[in-house]
Design the sequence.
Protein backbone atom coordinates (compact mmCIF):
# COMPACT_ATOMS: atom_id res chain seq x y z
CA UNK A 1 0.00 0.00 0.00
CA UNK A 2 2.84 2.35 0.77
CA UNK A 3 4.67 1.44 -2.39
CA UNK A 4 3.79 4.63 -4.25
CA UNK A 5 4.80 6.71 -1.24
CA UNK A 6 8.29 5.17 -0.88
CA UNK A 7 9.99 7.05 -3.74
CA UNK A 8 8.57 10.33 -2.47
CA UNK A 9 9.74 9.80 1.11
CA UNK A 10 13.15 8.76 -0.18
CA UNK A 11 13.45 11.94 -2.25
CA UNK A 12 12.22 14.02 0.68
CA UNK A 13 14.85 12.44 2.97
CA UNK A 14 17.53 13.23 0.40
CA UNK A 15 16.48 16.87 0.44
CA UNK A 16 16.16 17.40 4.17
CA UNK A 17 19.44 15.69 5.02
CA UNK A 18 21.25 18.41 3.07
CA UNK A 19 19.26 21.44 4.12
CA UNK A 20 21.72 24.18 3.17
CA UNK A 21 22.55 22.62 -0.16
CA UNK A 22 18.90 22.08 -1.02
CA UNK A 23 18.12 25.63 0.04
CA UNK A 24 20.80 27.07 -2.26
CA UNK A 25 19.63 24.96 -5.15
CA UNK A 26 16.05 26.04 -4.61
CA UNK A 27 17.25 29.64 -4.32
CA UNK A 28 18.70 29.46 -7.84
CA UNK A 29 15.32 28.45 -9.19
CA UNK A 30 13.53 30.98 -6.98
CA UNK A 31 15.60 33.80 -8.44
CA UNK A 32 14.98 32.59 -11.98
CA UNK A 33 11.24 32.16 -11.59
CA UNK A 34 10.96 35.33 -9.52
CA UNK A 35 12.76 37.30 -12.22
CA UNK A 36 10.51 35.89 -14.93
CA UNK A 37 7.37 36.75 -12.97
CA UNK A 38 8.58 40.23 -12.00
CA UNK A 39 9.84 41.29 -15.42
CA UNK A 40 6.88 39.85 -17.27
CA UNK A 41 4.46 41.51 -14.86
CA UNK A 42 6.22 44.82 -15.48
CA UNK A 43 5.85 44.26 -19.22
CA UNK A 44 2.21 43.28 -18.89
CA UNK A 45 1.58 46.26 -16.63
CA UNK A 46 3.09 48.67 -19.16
CA UNK A 47 0.97 47.06 -21.85
CA UNK A 48 -2.15 47.53 -19.78
CA UNK A 49 -1.21 51.13 -18.93
CA UNK A 50 -0.72 52.06 -22.56
CA UNK A 51 -3.99 50.49 -23.56
CA UNK A 52 -5.86 52.35 -20.85
CA UNK A 53 -4.19 55.60 -21.94
CA UNK A 54 -5.39 54.96 -25.44
CA UNK A 55 -8.86 54.28 -24.13
CA UNK A 56 -8.55 57.70 -22.46
CA UNK A 57 -8.14 59.27 -25.86
CA UNK A 58 -11.65 58.09 -26.58
CA UNK A 59 -12.31 54.65 -27.94
CA UNK A 60 -14.30 56.00 -30.89
CA UNK A 61 -11.69 58.46 -32.08
CA UNK A 62 -10.55 58.51 -35.71
CA UNK A 63 -7.61 60.61 -36.85
CA UNK A 64 -6.93 61.52 -40.45
CA UNK A 65 -3.43 62.70 -41.28
CA UNK A 66 -1.78 63.66 -44.52
CA UNK A 67 0.85 61.36 -46.00
CA UNK A 68 1.14 57.64 -46.41
CA UNK A 69 0.72 55.36 -43.43
CA UNK A 70 3.79 54.66 -41.41
CA UNK A 71 3.90 53.76 -37.79
CA UNK A 72 6.75 54.24 -35.41
CA UNK A 73 8.89 55.43 -38.30
CA UNK A 74 9.17 58.55 -40.39
CA UNK A 75 5.97 59.86 -41.83
CA UNK A 76 6.46 59.85 -45.57
CA UNK A 77 7.37 63.11 -47.20
CA UNK A 78 5.30 65.51 -45.08
CA UNK A 79 2.88 65.76 -47.95
CA UNK A 80 0.53 68.64 -47.41
CA UNK A 81 -2.70 67.42 -48.82
CA UNK A 82 -5.27 67.61 -46.08
CA UNK A 83 -7.28 70.85 -45.89
CA UNK A 84 -9.93 72.54 -43.82
CA UNK A 85 -12.20 72.08 -46.78
CA UNK A 86 -11.67 68.30 -46.57
CA UNK A 87 -12.64 68.49 -42.94
CA UNK A 88 -15.83 70.39 -43.76
CA UNK A 89 -16.66 67.90 -46.50
CA UNK A 90 -16.22 64.99 -44.06
CA UNK A 91 -18.43 66.66 -41.51
CA UNK A 92 -21.14 67.33 -44.11
CA UNK A 93 -21.05 64.14 -46.18
CA UNK A 94 -20.05 61.25 -43.91
CA UNK A 95 -22.74 59.77 -41.68
CA UNK A 96 -22.38 58.25 -38.20
CA UNK A 97 -19.94 60.87 -36.98
CA UNK A 98 -20.67 63.20 -34.11
CA UNK A 99 -17.95 65.86 -34.24
CA UNK A 100 -15.07 66.82 -36.51
CA UNK A 101 -12.08 68.93 -35.49
CA UNK A 102 -9.39 69.99 -37.97
CA UNK A 103 -6.15 71.08 -36.40
CA UNK A 104 -2.98 72.76 -37.52
CA UNK A 105 0.11 72.35 -35.39
CA UNK A 106 3.21 74.48 -35.35
CA UNK A 107 6.06 75.07 -32.98
CA UNK A 108 6.13 78.51 -31.31
CA UNK A 109 7.98 80.36 -28.56
CA UNK A 110 5.93 81.08 -25.42
CA UNK A 111 6.99 83.79 -22.99
CA UNK A 112 5.54 84.70 -19.62
CA UNK A 113 7.51 87.09 -17.44
CA UNK A 114 10.99 85.61 -17.05
CA UNK A 115 10.13 82.10 -18.18
CA UNK A 116 9.85 80.95 -21.73
CA UNK A 117 9.48 77.66 -23.53
CA UNK A 118 9.20 76.36 -27.03
CA UNK A 119 5.98 74.46 -27.49
CA UNK A 120 3.67 72.77 -29.92
CA UNK A 121 0.74 75.05 -30.65
CA UNK A 122 -2.37 73.51 -32.12
CA UNK A 123 -4.93 75.69 -33.80
CA UNK A 124 -8.27 73.94 -33.90
CA UNK A 125 -12.03 74.29 -33.49
CA UNK A 126 -14.08 74.13 -30.24
CA UNK A 127 -15.10 70.55 -31.09
CA UNK A 128 -11.55 69.41 -30.38
CA UNK A 129 -12.07 69.02 -26.63
CA UNK A 130 -15.03 66.70 -27.09
CA UNK A 131 -13.52 64.74 -29.96
CA UNK A 132 -10.30 64.04 -28.07
CA UNK A 133 -11.98 63.39 -24.76
CA UNK A 134 -10.02 66.08 -22.89
CA UNK A 135 -10.93 67.40 -19.43
CA UNK A 136 -10.41 70.87 -18.01
CA UNK A 137 -8.43 71.26 -14.80
CA UNK A 138 -9.46 74.90 -14.56
CA UNK A 139 -11.08 77.60 -16.68
CA UNK A 140 -12.82 76.75 -19.95
CA UNK A 141 -11.98 75.63 -23.46
CA UNK A 142 -12.46 78.30 -26.09
CA UNK A 143 -16.01 78.68 -27.40
CA UNK A 144 -17.55 78.76 -30.84
CA UNK A 145 -17.80 82.50 -30.40
CA UNK A 146 -14.03 82.75 -29.74
CA UNK A 147 -13.46 80.74 -32.90
CA UNK A 148 -15.77 82.88 -35.03
CA UNK A 149 -14.14 86.09 -33.89
CA UNK A 150 -10.58 84.83 -33.89
CA UNK A 151 -10.15 85.73 -30.21
CA UNK A 152 -6.57 85.42 -29.00
CA UNK A 153 -7.29 83.05 -26.13
CA UNK A 154 -5.37 79.84 -25.34
CA UNK A 155 -5.80 76.66 -23.33
CA UNK A 156 -2.60 75.18 -21.89
CA UNK A 157 -1.60 71.56 -21.52
CA UNK A 158 -0.75 70.76 -17.89
CA UNK A 159 3.03 70.54 -18.42
CA UNK A 160 3.14 73.87 -20.24
CA UNK A 161 1.15 75.46 -17.43
CA UNK A 162 3.62 74.08 -14.88
CA UNK A 163 6.62 75.28 -16.87
CA UNK A 164 5.43 78.83 -17.43
CA UNK A 165 3.50 79.43 -14.24
CA UNK A 166 5.22 77.74 -11.34
CA UNK A 167 3.23 79.45 -8.58
CA UNK A 168 0.77 81.83 -10.21
CA UNK A 169 -2.66 80.82 -11.40
CA UNK A 170 -2.34 80.88 -15.20
CA UNK A 171 -5.98 81.70 -15.88
CA UNK A 172 -6.45 85.28 -16.99
CA UNK A 173 -2.72 85.83 -17.51
CA UNK A 174 -1.33 87.17 -20.76
CA UNK A 175 1.54 85.41 -22.52
CA UNK A 176 3.40 86.11 -25.69
CA UNK A 177 3.06 83.42 -28.33
CA UNK A 178 5.21 83.95 -31.40
CA UNK A 179 4.41 87.48 -32.48
CA UNK A 180 1.07 87.93 -30.71
CA UNK A 181 -0.13 88.36 -27.14
CA UNK A 182 -2.69 85.79 -25.98
CA UNK A 183 -4.78 85.35 -22.84
CA UNK A 184 -4.93 82.03 -20.98
CA UNK A 185 -8.53 80.96 -20.36
CA UNK A 186 -8.06 77.38 -19.32
CA UNK A 187 -5.70 74.57 -18.27
CA UNK A 188 -6.20 70.94 -19.27
CA UNK A 189 -6.21 67.94 -16.95
CA UNK A 190 -3.08 65.80 -17.35
CA UNK A 191 -3.55 62.78 -19.63
CA UNK A 192 -0.53 60.87 -18.44
CA UNK A 193 2.85 60.53 -19.99
CA UNK A 194 1.98 58.22 -22.83
CA UNK A 195 1.42 58.47 -26.54
CA UNK A 196 -0.70 61.31 -27.94
CA UNK A 197 -0.56 63.30 -24.74
CA UNK A 198 -2.08 66.77 -24.81
CA UNK A 199 0.01 67.78 -21.78
CA UNK A 200 2.67 69.52 -23.87
CA UNK A 201 0.40 71.33 -26.30
CA UNK A 202 -1.14 74.81 -26.32
CA UNK A 203 -4.59 75.05 -27.95
CA UNK A 204 -5.80 78.18 -29.71
CA UNK A 205 -8.69 78.87 -32.11
CA UNK A 206 -7.44 78.11 -35.62
CA UNK A 207 -8.70 81.53 -36.71
CA UNK A 208 -6.51 83.23 -34.11
CA UNK A 209 -3.51 81.13 -34.98
CA UNK A 210 -3.67 82.30 -38.58
CA UNK A 211 -2.83 85.80 -37.30
CA UNK A 212 0.64 84.74 -36.19
CA UNK A 213 1.42 81.70 -38.35
CA UNK A 214 0.87 81.80 -42.06
CA UNK A 215 -1.14 78.64 -42.69
CA UNK A 216 0.14 77.16 -45.95
CA UNK A 217 -2.23 76.53 -48.84
CA UNK A 218 -2.40 73.86 -51.51
CA UNK A 219 -1.98 74.85 -55.18
CA UNK A 220 -5.76 74.74 -55.39
CA UNK A 221 -6.01 77.24 -52.56
CA UNK A 222 -7.12 74.85 -49.79
CA UNK A 223 -5.94 75.72 -46.30
CA UNK A 224 -3.68 72.92 -45.10
CA UNK A 225 -4.20 71.24 -41.70
CA UNK A 226 -1.99 68.77 -39.83
CA UNK A 227 -4.80 66.46 -38.85
CA UNK A 228 -8.52 66.00 -38.75
CA UNK A 229 -9.88 64.18 -35.75
CA UNK A 230 -13.44 63.03 -35.43
CA UNK A 231 -15.60 60.82 -33.29
CA UNK A 232 -17.82 58.03 -34.48
CA UNK A 233 -21.29 58.16 -32.99
CA UNK A 234 -21.84 54.43 -33.36
CA UNK A 235 -18.71 52.37 -32.70
CA UNK A 236 -19.97 49.42 -34.73
CA UNK A 237 -19.83 51.68 -37.76
CA UNK A 238 -16.13 52.58 -37.34
CA UNK A 239 -15.01 50.62 -40.39
CA UNK A 240 -17.81 52.06 -42.55
CA UNK A 241 -16.87 55.57 -41.48
CA UNK A 242 -13.23 54.90 -42.36
CA UNK A 243 -14.29 53.56 -45.76
CA UNK A 244 -16.53 56.55 -46.51
CA UNK A 245 -13.83 59.05 -45.52
CA UNK A 246 -11.33 57.19 -47.69
CA UNK A 247 -13.49 57.32 -50.79
CA UNK A 248 -14.52 60.90 -50.13
CA UNK A 249 -10.92 62.09 -49.76
CA UNK A 250 -9.73 60.09 -52.77
CA UNK A 251 -12.38 61.81 -54.89
CA UNK A 252 -11.57 65.22 -53.49
CA UNK A 253 -7.84 64.72 -54.03
CA UNK A 254 -8.44 63.41 -57.61
CA UNK A 255 -6.40 60.26 -56.98
CA UNK A 256 -6.17 57.74 -59.80
CA UNK A 257 -7.49 54.27 -58.98
CA UNK A 258 -3.99 52.84 -58.94
CA UNK A 259 -2.55 55.61 -56.74
CA UNK A 260 -1.94 55.10 -53.03
CA UNK A 261 -3.84 57.17 -50.52
CA UNK A 262 -2.13 60.49 -49.83
CA UNK A 263 -3.53 60.47 -46.31
CA UNK A 264 -3.91 57.89 -43.61
CA UNK A 265 -6.75 57.12 -41.26
CA UNK A 266 -6.21 55.58 -37.89
CA UNK A 267 -8.75 54.58 -35.32
CA UNK A 268 -7.91 54.26 -31.63
CA UNK A 269 -8.62 50.57 -31.92
CA UNK A 270 -5.94 50.19 -34.56
CA UNK A 271 -3.43 52.15 -32.51
CA UNK A 272 -4.30 50.02 -29.52
CA UNK A 273 -3.81 46.76 -31.36
CA UNK A 274 -0.56 47.88 -32.98
CA UNK A 275 0.83 49.10 -29.66
CA UNK A 276 -0.27 46.09 -27.70
CA UNK A 277 1.45 43.89 -30.24
CA UNK A 278 4.65 45.90 -29.80
CA UNK A 279 4.33 45.74 -26.03
CA UNK A 280 3.70 42.01 -26.17
CA UNK A 281 7.02 41.65 -27.93
CA UNK A 282 8.69 43.72 -25.24
CA UNK A 283 7.15 41.57 -22.51
CA UNK A 284 8.45 38.46 -24.24
CA UNK A 285 11.89 40.00 -24.49
CA UNK A 286 11.91 40.81 -20.79
CA UNK A 287 10.75 37.27 -20.08
CA UNK A 288 13.53 35.86 -22.24
CA UNK A 289 16.14 37.83 -20.34
CA UNK A 290 14.77 36.55 -17.06
CA UNK A 291 14.62 33.03 -18.48
CA UNK A 292 18.42 33.10 -18.70
CA UNK A 293 18.61 33.24 -14.92
CA UNK A 294 16.14 30.37 -14.79
CA UNK A 295 18.47 28.42 -17.06
CA UNK A 296 21.38 29.17 -14.74
CA UNK A 297 19.23 27.93 -11.86
CA UNK A 298 18.60 24.73 -13.79
CA UNK A 299 22.32 24.21 -14.28
CA UNK A 300 22.61 24.68 -10.51
CA UNK A 301 20.14 21.83 -10.01
CA UNK A 302 22.20 19.64 -12.31
CA UNK A 303 25.40 20.52 -10.51
CA UNK A 304 23.94 19.66 -7.12
CA UNK A 305 22.43 16.44 -8.38
CA UNK A 306 25.78 15.35 -9.83
CA UNK A 307 27.49 16.05 -6.51
CA UNK A 308 24.70 14.28 -4.70
CA UNK A 309 25.02 11.18 -6.88
CA UNK A 310 28.78 11.12 -6.36
CA UNK A 311 28.39 11.50 -2.63
CA UNK A 312 25.75 8.82 -2.38
CA UNK A 313 27.49 6.24 -4.56
CA UNK A 314 27.65 3.82 -1.65
CA UNK A 315 23.99 4.37 -0.83
CA UNK A 316 23.15 3.58 -4.46
CA UNK A 317 25.20 0.39 -4.18
CA UNK A 318 23.33 -0.63 -1.02
CA UNK A 319 19.98 0.07 -2.64
CA UNK A 320 20.96 -1.96 -5.67
CA UNK A 321 22.05 -4.87 -3.48
CA UNK A 322 18.63 -4.70 -1.82
CA UNK A 323 16.94 -5.14 -5.19
CA UNK A 324 16.62 -1.61 -6.62
CA UNK A 325 16.38 -1.65 -10.41
CA UNK A 326 17.91 1.05 -12.60
CA UNK A 327 14.59 2.79 -12.91
CA UNK A 328 14.14 2.84 -9.11
CA UNK A 329 17.44 4.68 -8.68
CA UNK A 330 16.76 6.87 -11.71
CA UNK A 331 13.30 7.75 -10.42
CA UNK A 332 14.62 8.57 -6.97
CA UNK A 333 17.05 11.19 -8.25
CA UNK A 334 14.67 12.54 -10.84
CA UNK A 335 11.92 13.02 -8.27
CA UNK A 336 14.42 14.77 -6.05
CA UNK A 337 15.47 17.15 -8.84
CA UNK A 338 11.88 17.81 -9.84
CA UNK A 339 10.93 18.40 -6.23
CA UNK A 340 13.73 20.93 -5.72
CA UNK A 341 12.83 22.87 -8.83
CA UNK A 342 9.09 22.66 -8.18
CA UNK A 343 9.59 24.05 -4.68
CA UNK A 344 11.79 26.75 -6.22
CA UNK A 345 9.09 27.47 -8.76
CA UNK A 346 6.36 27.88 -6.16
CA UNK A 347 8.48 30.07 -3.88
CA UNK A 348 9.67 32.00 -6.94
CA UNK A 349 6.07 32.73 -7.94
CA UNK A 350 5.30 34.01 -4.46
CA UNK A 351 8.49 36.11 -4.41
CA UNK A 352 7.98 37.47 -7.91
CA UNK A 353 4.37 38.28 -7.12
CA UNK A 354 5.43 40.06 -3.95
CA UNK A 355 8.10 42.09 -5.74
CA UNK A 356 5.77 43.14 -8.54
CA UNK A 357 3.14 44.06 -5.97
CA UNK A 358 5.75 46.17 -4.17
CA UNK A 359 6.80 47.84 -7.42
CA UNK A 360 3.20 48.77 -8.13
CA UNK A 361 2.62 49.85 -4.53
CA UNK A 362 5.65 52.15 -4.53
CA UNK A 363 4.35 53.73 -7.71
CA UNK A 364 7.43 52.92 -9.77
CA UNK A 365 5.48 51.14 -12.49
CA UNK A 366 2.21 49.47 -13.07
CA UNK A 367 2.59 45.69 -12.86
CA UNK A 368 0.22 42.91 -13.71
CA UNK A 369 0.65 39.24 -12.80
CA UNK A 370 -1.49 37.12 -15.08
CA UNK A 371 -2.24 33.39 -14.61
CA UNK A 372 -0.53 32.44 -17.85
CA UNK A 373 2.79 33.86 -16.59
CA UNK A 374 2.47 31.89 -13.34
CA UNK A 375 1.61 28.63 -15.09
CA UNK A 376 4.42 29.17 -17.59
CA UNK A 377 7.01 29.91 -14.90
CA UNK A 378 6.10 26.93 -12.71
CA UNK A 379 5.90 24.43 -15.54
CA UNK A 380 9.15 25.68 -17.05
CA UNK A 381 10.88 25.34 -13.68
CA UNK A 382 9.69 21.76 -13.23
CA UNK A 383 10.64 21.03 -16.83
CA UNK A 384 14.11 22.43 -16.15
CA UNK A 385 14.41 20.26 -13.04
CA UNK A 386 13.51 17.15 -15.02
CA UNK A 387 15.75 18.13 -17.92
CA UNK A 388 18.81 18.90 -15.81
CA UNK A 389 18.07 16.09 -13.35
CA UNK A 390 17.94 13.53 -16.12
CA UNK A 391 21.66 13.17 -16.72
CA UNK A 392 22.73 12.85 -13.05
CA UNK A 393 19.88 10.40 -12.41
CA UNK A 394 20.85 8.33 -15.40
CA UNK A 395 24.47 8.33 -14.21
CA UNK A 396 23.37 7.11 -10.80
CA UNK A 397 21.21 4.34 -12.18
CA UNK A 398 24.05 2.91 -14.23
CA UNK A 399 26.54 2.54 -11.40
CA UNK A 400 27.97 -0.93 -10.96
CA UNK A 401 26.68 -2.22 -7.59
CA UNK A 402 29.96 -3.85 -6.57
CA UNK A 403 32.06 -0.77 -7.29
CA UNK A 404 29.42 1.42 -5.68
CA UNK A 405 29.49 -0.70 -2.51
CA UNK A 406 33.28 -0.49 -2.38
CA UNK A 407 33.37 3.31 -2.56
CA UNK A 408 33.83 5.33 0.59
CA UNK B 1 19.78 -24.25 -4.38
CA UNK B 2 22.99 -23.03 -5.98
CA UNK B 3 24.69 -24.70 -8.90
CA UNK B 4 27.83 -23.14 -10.40
CA UNK B 5 29.16 -24.80 -13.58
CA UNK B 6 32.66 -23.93 -14.82
CA UNK B 7 32.29 -20.30 -13.81
CA UNK B 8 35.07 -17.92 -14.84
CA UNK B 9 35.36 -14.23 -14.17
CA UNK B 10 37.90 -11.87 -15.69
CA UNK B 11 38.23 -8.13 -15.17
CA UNK B 12 39.87 -5.78 -17.64
CA UNK B 13 42.98 -4.25 -16.06
CA UNK B 14 44.22 -1.65 -18.47
CA UNK B 15 45.38 -3.58 -21.51
CA UNK B 16 45.60 -6.94 -19.80
CA UNK B 17 42.90 -9.01 -18.22
CA UNK B 18 42.83 -10.14 -14.64
CA UNK B 19 41.35 -13.59 -14.20
CA UNK B 20 39.80 -13.94 -10.78
CA UNK B 21 37.85 -17.19 -11.10
CA UNK B 22 39.15 -20.01 -13.28
CA UNK B 23 36.42 -22.58 -13.71
CA UNK B 24 34.53 -23.04 -10.48
CA UNK B 25 32.06 -25.89 -10.09
CA UNK B 26 30.00 -25.86 -6.92
CA UNK B 27 26.74 -27.26 -5.73
CA UNK B 28 25.04 -26.03 -2.57
CA UNK B 29 21.88 -27.75 -1.39
CA UNK B 30 18.92 -26.04 0.15
CA UNK B 31 19.33 -25.43 3.88
CA UNK B 32 23.12 -25.87 3.85
CA UNK B 33 25.49 -23.77 5.94
CA UNK B 34 28.68 -23.25 3.96
CA UNK B 35 31.87 -21.39 4.79
CA UNK B 36 34.24 -20.09 2.12
CA UNK B 37 37.86 -19.63 3.12
CA UNK B 38 40.99 -18.67 1.34
CA UNK B 39 43.76 -16.07 1.23
CA UNK B 40 42.95 -12.57 0.03
CA UNK B 41 42.87 -12.32 -3.73
CA UNK B 42 41.72 -15.92 -4.04
CA UNK B 43 38.36 -14.87 -5.51
CA UNK B 44 36.10 -15.45 -2.46
CA UNK B 45 34.32 -12.13 -2.71
CA UNK B 46 33.97 -12.34 -6.47
CA UNK B 47 32.38 -15.76 -6.09
CA UNK B 48 29.99 -14.48 -3.43
CA UNK B 49 29.09 -11.45 -5.58
CA UNK B 50 28.31 -13.77 -8.49
CA UNK B 51 26.14 -15.94 -6.23
CA UNK B 52 24.43 -12.76 -5.06
CA UNK B 53 23.68 -11.69 -8.64
CA UNK B 54 25.60 -8.46 -8.07
CA UNK B 55 27.78 -9.43 -11.01
CA UNK B 56 27.66 -11.71 -14.04
CA UNK B 57 30.18 -14.47 -14.81
CA UNK B 58 32.39 -14.07 -17.88
CA UNK B 59 31.59 -17.66 -18.82
CA UNK B 60 29.87 -20.63 -17.26
CA UNK B 61 26.34 -21.01 -15.99
CA UNK B 62 24.76 -20.28 -12.66
CA UNK B 63 21.48 -21.83 -11.56
CA UNK B 64 19.72 -20.35 -8.55
CA UNK B 65 16.74 -22.43 -7.40
CA UNK B 66 16.80 -24.18 -10.81
CA UNK B 67 16.69 -20.91 -12.74
CA UNK B 68 19.57 -19.94 -14.98
CA UNK B 69 20.31 -16.49 -13.63
CA UNK B 70 23.58 -16.01 -15.53
CA UNK B 71 21.49 -15.10 -18.58
CA UNK B 72 19.27 -12.52 -16.93
CA UNK B 73 19.50 -8.81 -17.65
CA UNK B 74 20.18 -6.06 -15.11
CA UNK B 75 16.58 -5.42 -14.14
CA UNK B 76 15.82 -9.13 -13.69
CA UNK B 77 18.97 -9.61 -11.61
CA UNK B 78 17.84 -6.74 -9.39
CA UNK B 79 14.55 -8.55 -8.86
CA UNK B 80 16.39 -11.77 -7.97
CA UNK B 81 18.53 -9.87 -5.46
CA UNK B 82 15.48 -8.25 -3.99
CA UNK B 83 13.37 -11.38 -3.63
CA UNK B 84 15.72 -14.31 -3.10
CA UNK B 85 18.93 -13.02 -1.57
CA UNK B 86 19.79 -11.38 1.72
CA UNK B 87 23.24 -9.76 2.03
CA UNK B 88 25.32 -9.22 5.13
CA UNK B 89 28.48 -7.18 4.67
CA UNK B 90 31.67 -6.81 6.66
CA UNK B 91 31.13 -3.06 6.82
CA UNK B 92 27.39 -3.43 7.63
CA UNK B 93 26.39 -1.01 4.83
CA UNK B 94 23.59 0.68 6.68
CA UNK B 95 22.42 4.13 5.53
CA UNK B 96 23.84 6.47 8.17
CA UNK B 97 21.02 9.03 7.98
CA UNK B 98 18.24 6.55 8.57
CA UNK B 99 17.07 5.02 11.85
CA UNK B 100 17.47 1.29 12.48
CA UNK B 101 13.79 0.83 11.65
CA UNK B 102 14.04 2.76 8.37
CA UNK B 103 17.14 0.77 7.42
CA UNK B 104 15.25 -2.49 7.93
CA UNK B 105 12.29 -1.13 5.99
CA UNK B 106 14.69 -0.47 3.13
CA UNK B 107 15.07 -4.23 2.82
CA UNK B 108 11.48 -4.41 1.59
CA UNK B 109 11.51 -1.16 -0.32
CA UNK B 110 12.08 -2.68 -3.75
CA UNK B 111 10.13 -5.89 -3.24
CA UNK B 112 6.54 -5.09 -2.43
CA UNK B 113 7.07 -1.91 -0.47
CA UNK B 114 7.96 -0.89 3.06
CA UNK B 115 6.04 -2.35 5.94
CA UNK B 116 6.77 -0.80 9.33
CA UNK B 117 5.18 -3.61 11.31
CA UNK B 118 7.30 -6.34 9.68
CA UNK B 119 10.42 -4.21 10.08
CA UNK B 120 9.70 -3.83 13.79
CA UNK B 121 9.19 -7.59 14.17
CA UNK B 122 12.51 -8.27 12.44
CA UNK B 123 14.30 -5.91 14.84
CA UNK B 124 12.63 -7.61 17.80
CA UNK B 125 13.85 -10.94 16.46
CA UNK B 126 17.49 -9.75 16.53
CA UNK B 127 16.98 -8.30 20.01
CA UNK B 128 17.01 -4.60 19.17
CA UNK B 129 13.47 -3.58 20.19
CA UNK B 130 15.02 -0.93 22.46
CA UNK B 131 17.06 0.62 19.65
CA UNK B 132 14.47 0.94 16.91
CA UNK B 133 14.82 4.68 16.44
CA UNK B 134 18.59 4.92 16.85
CA UNK B 135 20.79 5.80 13.96
CA UNK B 136 23.72 3.51 13.01
CA UNK B 137 26.24 5.96 14.54
CA UNK B 138 24.47 5.59 17.87
CA UNK B 139 24.81 1.80 17.80
CA UNK B 140 27.77 -0.48 18.55
CA UNK B 141 29.30 -2.54 15.74
CA UNK B 142 27.53 -5.68 16.89
CA UNK B 143 24.20 -3.87 17.05
CA UNK B 144 24.75 -2.43 13.56
CA UNK B 145 25.40 -5.90 12.19
CA UNK B 146 22.20 -7.12 13.87
CA UNK B 147 20.28 -4.33 12.13
CA UNK B 148 21.86 -5.51 8.87
CA UNK B 149 20.76 -9.10 9.61
CA UNK B 150 17.22 -7.87 10.31
CA UNK B 151 17.31 -5.97 7.00
CA UNK B 152 18.46 -9.08 5.13
CA UNK B 153 15.83 -11.32 6.74
CA UNK B 154 12.80 -9.03 6.70
CA UNK B 155 11.79 -10.18 3.23
CA UNK B 156 12.28 -13.89 4.06
CA UNK B 157 14.86 -14.75 1.39
CA UNK B 158 15.76 -18.41 0.84
CA UNK B 159 19.47 -17.54 0.53
CA UNK B 160 21.63 -15.52 2.88
CA UNK B 161 25.13 -14.42 1.81
CA UNK B 162 27.56 -13.03 4.36
CA UNK B 163 30.93 -11.52 3.45
CA UNK B 164 33.08 -11.68 6.59
CA UNK B 165 30.20 -10.71 8.87
CA UNK B 166 32.45 -10.56 11.93
CA UNK B 167 35.47 -8.98 10.26
CA UNK B 168 34.87 -5.59 11.85
CA UNK B 169 33.74 -6.85 15.24
CA UNK B 170 35.45 -7.79 18.47
CA UNK B 171 35.38 -11.48 19.37
CA UNK B 172 32.47 -11.20 21.85
CA UNK B 173 30.03 -9.47 19.52
CA UNK B 174 31.42 -11.49 16.60
CA UNK B 175 30.50 -14.64 18.51
CA UNK B 176 26.98 -13.29 19.14
CA UNK B 177 26.51 -12.59 15.45
CA UNK B 178 27.69 -16.07 14.46
CA UNK B 179 25.42 -17.79 16.95
CA UNK B 180 22.54 -15.63 15.76
CA UNK B 181 23.24 -16.60 12.14
CA UNK B 182 23.60 -20.30 12.91
CA UNK B 183 20.41 -20.38 14.96
CA UNK B 184 18.54 -18.54 12.17
CA UNK B 185 19.86 -21.16 9.81
CA UNK B 186 18.60 -24.04 11.93
CA UNK B 187 15.28 -22.41 12.87
CA UNK B 188 14.27 -21.12 9.45
CA UNK B 189 16.10 -23.57 7.21
CA UNK B 190 17.83 -20.71 5.37
CA UNK B 191 20.70 -21.53 3.07
CA UNK B 192 23.68 -19.57 4.38
CA UNK B 193 26.97 -19.00 2.58
CA UNK B 194 29.59 -17.12 4.56
CA UNK B 195 33.11 -15.93 3.81
CA UNK B 196 35.36 -16.03 6.82
CA UNK B 197 39.02 -15.97 7.82
CA UNK B 198 38.31 -17.45 11.19
CA UNK B 199 38.73 -21.24 11.36
CA UNK B 200 36.69 -21.43 14.60
CA UNK B 201 33.76 -19.80 12.88
CA UNK B 202 34.20 -22.01 9.83
CA UNK B 203 33.89 -25.05 12.04
CA UNK B 204 30.37 -24.01 13.00
CA UNK B 205 29.48 -24.69 9.35
CA UNK B 206 28.50 -27.94 7.72
CA UNK B 207 30.92 -27.56 4.82
CA UNK B 208 34.11 -25.53 4.27
CA UNK B 209 35.25 -24.60 0.79
CA UNK B 210 38.85 -23.50 0.31
CA UNK B 211 39.64 -21.23 -2.60
CA UNK B 212 43.07 -20.44 -4.01
CA UNK B 213 43.93 -18.52 -7.17
CA UNK B 214 40.38 -18.62 -8.39
CA UNK B 215 39.86 -22.33 -7.98
CA UNK B 216 38.35 -24.56 -5.33
CA UNK B 217 41.23 -26.50 -3.85
CA UNK B 218 39.53 -28.53 -1.12
CA UNK B 219 36.10 -29.12 0.28
CA UNK B 220 35.71 -30.57 3.72
CA UNK B 221 32.72 -31.44 5.78
CA UNK B 222 32.95 -30.11 9.29
Sequence:
Amino acid sequence: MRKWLDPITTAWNGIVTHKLRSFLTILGIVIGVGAVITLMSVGRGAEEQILSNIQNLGSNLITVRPGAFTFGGVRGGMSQTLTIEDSQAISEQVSNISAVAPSYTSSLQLVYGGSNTNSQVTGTTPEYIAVNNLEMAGGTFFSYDDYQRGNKVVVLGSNIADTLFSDTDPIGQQIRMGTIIVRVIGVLESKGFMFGSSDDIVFIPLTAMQQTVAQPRTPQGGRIVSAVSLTVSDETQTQNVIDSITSLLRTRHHLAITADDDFNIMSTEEIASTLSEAMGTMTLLLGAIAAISLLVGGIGVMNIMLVSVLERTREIGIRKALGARERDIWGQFLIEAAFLSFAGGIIGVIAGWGISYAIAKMGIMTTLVTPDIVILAVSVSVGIGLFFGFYPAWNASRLNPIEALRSE
Amino acid sequence: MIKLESITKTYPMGKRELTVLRGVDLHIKEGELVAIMGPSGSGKSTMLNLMGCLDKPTSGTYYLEDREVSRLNGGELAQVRGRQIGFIFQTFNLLPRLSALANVELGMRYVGGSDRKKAREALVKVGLEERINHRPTELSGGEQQRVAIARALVKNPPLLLADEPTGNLDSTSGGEIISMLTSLHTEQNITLVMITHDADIAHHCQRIIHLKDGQIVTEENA
Q: What stands out?
A: Residues 47 and 277 of chain A are 9 Å apart (CA to CA). Residues 80-261 of chain A form one domain. Chain A is about 55% helix and 15% strand. The interface with chain B takes residues 1-3, 6, 10, 13, 17, 314-315, 317-328, 401-402, 405 of chain A (CB under 8 Å).
